[in-house]
Amino acid sequence: MRFHSQTAGVTLTAQQPMNNVVRVAYQALAAVLGGTQSLHTNSMDETLALPTEEAVQVALRTQQVLAYETGVPNVIDPLGGSYYVEALTDQLEREAEALFEEIDEASAASSRVSRPAGSSARSPSPPRGSSGRSSSIGA
What we know:
Elements: E1 4-6, H1 19-33, E2 38-40, H2 53-68, H3 83-111
Parallel strand pairs: 1-2
């Protein structure tokens, strides 16, 4: 699977825009660790206006440091075998399975509920026009 990532501009703040450099760097690292093939890093001052040349260059250098100085992109799965990641995955799987069981139980219970005589489980048909055909708005 291939995907593109962009750092979250909504997390950037107008006050102290230099702090946004750190936010963007962490977000970019998370995207790379997650396996992104394409990355856009927001500029530190995008909350104020169009980015300045300096801000654009810092955003570019953030990507370049990640790509060429950390070594993270040189590993197929940099978090592979991580106990923490595996533990989180196991926990997520257990919680998802519990939810699936709840849904199955609720579904089974609702199918046992009897319907009043003469009622139907299906939705009523849409109103028909004078021609006897169903009407479709805009068609």
